[in-house]
């Protein structure tokens, strides 16, 4: 098992290579037994991630400088967060490791994104749901089954805008802290179910930022992301029922028609939905 110092150095070197768009160096930190990650081969994954780093780095990093924090690790996995020099969360990742401490794919056909969904409707009490967002690539999902007796109010829906299924649920006596939950994903057709050990992110995360609701003022949307987390995406519904999506947006967003609802996604992947 790598020591914490060696693991930090390795992850830092990998991230520096990605920020420099140096695919050759970045590839050295992946296992020969990488397999697939969210249905992608290593080459596909690197292309997608290099494109994302190329978007994020100029916007959120000053002179490509960043801080790295290891949240959890053992001989089989590492969970880390990347911060800019102001301490704002830029990205987070959990990797499986091989015997040499190199990154291994999750061997899954799906991209699984756990989150909390905060919803505030005018004049009503805030509601909070657990959610596992599952992006599919070649198959559809028939059922998602979290394996816990504490689960209730389970609902599965498909996004109207992309190939993402949202499995929403509540848990008995939930304090909304981080925990690991086994989940079975059942594809449609002649496919076996896929078992995943999903780390549910929670309010006890060191970079959780409370109350990141956007502010709707007629046809403008304002938000603040200066403390712990960037805003990775915003979805807006206007009075004419049209949907508008913005990736890595700046505040404010101004439209030509009144805004009736908006959802902000923060750097922890949590959703903050405001409905007038």
Features:
eight-stranded mixed beta sheet; four-stranded antiparallel beta sheet; 276 residues; 3 domains; Immunoglobulin-like; 43% strand; mainly beta; 3 helices; 14% helix; Nuclear Transport Factor 2, Chain: A
Task: Please describe what this structure looks like.
- The protein has 276 residues and is mainly beta.
- The chain has 3 domains: 4-104, Roll (Nuclear Transport Factor 2, Chain: A); 111-117 and 125-200, Immunoglobulin-like, CATH 2.60.40; 215-275.
- The chain has 3 helices and 18 strands.
- The protein has helices at 4-19, 23-27, 42-60; strands at residues 67-74, 77-83, 89-97, 103-104, 111-121, 127-135, 141-146, 151-158, 164-171, 179-187, 194-200, 215-217, 220-222, 231-238, 243-247, 253-254, 259-266, 271-275.
- Strands 8-9-6-5-18-17-14-15 form an 8-stranded mixed β-sheet, with no helix packed on it.
- It is globular, with a radius of gyration of 19 Å.
- The N and C termini lie far apart (52 Å).
């Amino acid at each position: 098992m790598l020591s914490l110092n060696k693991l930090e150095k390795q992850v830092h070197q990998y991230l520096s290579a990605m920020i420099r768009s140096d695919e050759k160096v970045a590839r050295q930190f992946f296992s020969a037994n990488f397999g697939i990650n969210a249905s992608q081969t290593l080459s596909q994954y690197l292309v997608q991630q290099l494109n994302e780093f190329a978007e994020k780095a100029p916007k959120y990093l000053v002179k490509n400088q960043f801080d790295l924090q290891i949240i959890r690790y053992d001989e089989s996995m590492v969970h880390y967060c990347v911060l800019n020099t102001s301490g704002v969360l830029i990205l987070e990742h959990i990797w499986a490791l091989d015997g040499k401490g190199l990154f291994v794919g999750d061997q899954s056909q799906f991209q699984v994104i756990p989150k909390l969904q905060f919803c505030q409707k005018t004049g009503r009490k805030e509601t909070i749901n657990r959610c596992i967002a599952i992006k599919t690539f070649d198959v559809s999902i028939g059922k998602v089954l979290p394996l816990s007796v504490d689960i209730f109010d389970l609902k599965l829906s498909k996004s109207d805008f992309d190939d993402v299924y949202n499995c929403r649920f509540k848990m008995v006596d939930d304090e909304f802290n981080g925990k690991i939950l086994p989940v079975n994903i059942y594809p449609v057709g002649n496919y076996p179910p896929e078992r995943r050990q999903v780390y549910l992110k929670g309010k006890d995360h060191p970079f959780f930022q409370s109350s990141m609701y956007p502010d709707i003022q007629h046809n403008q949307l304002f938000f603040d992301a200066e403390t712990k987390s960037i805003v990775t995406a915003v979805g807006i519904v206007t009075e004419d029922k049209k949907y508008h999506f913005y990736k890595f947006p700046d505040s404010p967003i101004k439209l030509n028609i009144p805004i009736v609802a908006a959802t902000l996604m923060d750097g922890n992947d949590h959703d903050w939905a405001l409905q007038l």
